[in-house]
Amino acid sequence: MSRRSWPFLLGGLLVALLLAGVVSNYASPHPDGLDSSLLKGCTVNAQGEITGGSCPAQRARNHELSDSPLADYGVRGVSNGALSTGLSGVLGVLLTFALGGGLFWLARRRSPARDAGDAPARAGRAD
To answer: What parts of the sequence cross the membrane (predicted)?
Structure first.
């Protein structure tokens, strides 16, 4: 990667971290479209429990990943909601960046190894 692309890459990472860590707290309180569409037709109380009506969410089972460290847009064990959401976003960005960077590093185009005699001569310099 050239030196000119590093500031762009780091700037993009910084913007993503800022959006995930700070701006995500001001997003919709119901960000998951699938969950909200499954609740249509039901009456839901303040705790998110279904109290009446008829909707597909009534037949839902517990998810296998509901106990994972980053479930429900937060970090398990962090009691402050805003901090939990921001930290979850930052961890998600860092994990995605690391995974994507690692995959790009593995898939990069490698040039064949050169012998010392194959190196191009430097014009105008005497060694």
So the answer is: 86-107
